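Lab notebook, bench 4. Still working through the backlog of constructs that have no structural model yet. Next entry is a single chain of 190 residues. Request: give me the structure tokens for it.
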Amino acid sequence: MSRTLHLTQDAEADELLSRDPLALLLGMLLDQQIPMEKAFAGPKVLVERLGELDAHRIAGMDPEEFAQLCSTPPAIHRFPGSMAKRIQTLCRYLVDTFDGDVRGIWTGEDPDGTAVLKRLKALPGFGDQKARIFLALLGKQWGVQPAGWREAAGAYGDPEARRSIADVLDQQTLEEVRAWKKQQKAAAKK
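Model written out:
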């Protein structure tokens, strides 16, 4: 399937996310406490420094060396040291559980949407909300649509939603998602 994502508004970073499932998953992992575009551009920075993204290689790297690689300006995240640990932990899990192939999350044993959600929630660094958003991102923009994926993704699976990174198609939809998030934060403060 040919796809073109526009999550970072950076053509090279978006091209990487469009073709590499590990890049997409790592972008989702990094998507916390920083702007969405910065989080999803993080994998491109890793490719620039490593030459490639490979779960086996990242999992096997010396933790201090990998943390330094993530911390070198521009850092991949606001908290590069803790995120380096999370990335390596996730990559180790992928190696141990799916032989390093991210696609196994949604292809192994022909899972339905509920099973994919369960696998996503089992990933280190992924809670319920992050798993549902990633499932929606897979369904809406990567064409990964196992039976019942929209229902499993909950409100994030709504085709008209502007709630998360799954709904970012361009600069306009990015702003719509930001506005929705801002509205939710304001409502939560009341």
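Notes after review: The mean pLDDT is 95. The chain has eleven helices and no strands. Flag for follow-up if needed.
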